[in-house]
Design goal:
The chain is α/β, with parallel strands linked by helices. The protein has 12 helices and 15 strands. Helices cover about 35% and strands about 15% of the residues. Strands 7, 8, 9, 10, 11, 12, 13, 14 and 15 form a 9-stranded parallel β-sheet that branches. Strands 2-3-1-4 form a 4-stranded antiparallel β-sheet, covered by helices on one side. It has a two-stranded antiparallel sheet with strand order 5-6. The structure holds phosphoenolpyruvate (PEP) and manganese (II) ion. Phosphoenolpyruvate binds next to loops.
């Protein structure tokens, strides 16, 4: 159950309800910014509505509450001039890792020329082996930020640990929580306290309910700017890196108000499947795509097999545009739409 207090409600109103919940041993969370009580599991609305200062009570049966579609119809995450969610389509692209100044500037210039507004690049990399390239760390953040600034792009980059949130937030416009960290509850908690949009990737073994509860961790801290990202789940079959769970897109749209984008690069792990998977994701209703692009995929320091060259990415854009026009979806990338349709 979600109980929203009136803006004009007093501290006495809040304390009276809090006291009732404590006395009855009911788990709850109060969110100051929105004057909202989240009382999961409690169903007796009649016991709540007698309290003063209540604007609205929303009964929600699922374990996730704030992430539920019953709480809100639609979340649109705004990042400078970009809008993610609702009927906008957002493209985020860039290399798996920031490798050097020349590489990231080449990518930034290319994306800018295509009308793309968001550049991704890892500076802190979660690698399976400690001997693999693990990113340029702070230098990587600085290079990414410099390139993004030169070409007026939003920075999307991953935070690997709670201790790095401050540093990453200083350079990022959107912070990515990677698949391996979706279950890092302490970090999710801390991300709830900052005012930055978060891309929350699905854990590669996470159920939908676990993913939405991970979003709930961030939201219950007061940060509602969340973009879910399907990036493939692990399967028994090594033929592709992961399985892109395509049906999760309409499913999430039904369960939640949060925007959902798709990362077909990590889902497929193979460059030639990235475009077909992108088209499927676009057609089924994804709010955007997150694509790995590299000036020289064969030389990439991480995830080269799945990186698109500039030419391949250009083709992906053209084909995506065809799907967007067919489903009558407005692209967030006005300039991208414009350039491609000319
Ligand atoms: C990435 O985006 O480069 C990445 C490591 O993604 P994931 O967390 O989905 O594996
Ligand atoms: Mn990668």
């Amino acid at each position: 159950m979600i109980v929203i207090l009136h803006k004009s409600s007093t501290d006495t109103d809040k304390h009276a309800l809090a006291l009732f919940l404590q006395e009855n041993n009911l788990a709850y969370k109060y969110i100051d910014a929105t004057k909202t009580f989240v009382i999961p599991k409690f169903k007796q609305e009649e016991k709540i509505k007698v309290f003063k200062g209540i604007e609205k009570i929303i009964s929600i049966d699922t374990p996730y509450q704030l992430a539920s579609k019953l709480y809100k119809t639609n979340t649109v995450v705004e990042v400078k001039s970009s809008k993610i969610g609702d009927n906008n389509f957002t493209m985020i692209a860039g290399p798996c890792s920031v490798e050097n100044e020349d590489q990231i500037f080449q990518v930034a210039e290319f994306l800018h020329n295509k009308g793309i507004k968001n550049i991704r690049g890892g500076a802190y990399k979660p690698r399976t082996s400690p001997y693999s390239f693990r990113g340029l760390e702070k230098t990587g953040l600085q290079l990414l930020h410099k390139a993004a600034k030169a070409y007026n792009l939003n920075v999307v980059t991953e935070v690997l640990d709670t201790s790095l949130i401050g540093e990453v937030a200083a350079y990022a416009d959107i912070i990515q929580v990677g698949s391996r960290n979706m279950h890092n509850f302490y970090m999710l908690n801390e991300l709830g306290k900052i005012n930055k949009p978060i891309i929350l990737k699905r854990g590669f073994q996470a159920k939908v309910v676990e993913w939405l509860l991970a979003a709930e961790y961030i939201m219950s801290g007061g940060n509602e700017k969340i973009i879910l990202c399907e990036r493939g789940i692990r399967s028994f079959d090594p033929s592709s890196r992961n399985i892109l769970d395509i049906n999760v897109i309409p499913l999430i749209k039904e369960l939640s108000h949060l925007p959902i984008i798709v990362d077909p690069s990590h889902a497929t792990g193979i460059a030639k499947y990235v475009t077909p998977a992108s088209l499927a994701a676009t057609a089924i209703g994804a709010d955007g795509l997150l694509i790995e692009v590299h000036p020289k995929p064969a030389k990439a320091l991480s995830d080269g097999d799945q990186a698109l060259s500039f030419e391949e990415f250009d083709e992906l854009l053209k084909q995506t545009q065809t799907i967007l026009s067919a489903i009558n979806k407005k692209s967030d990338l006005e300039t991208f739409t414009f350039k491609l349709s000319r």
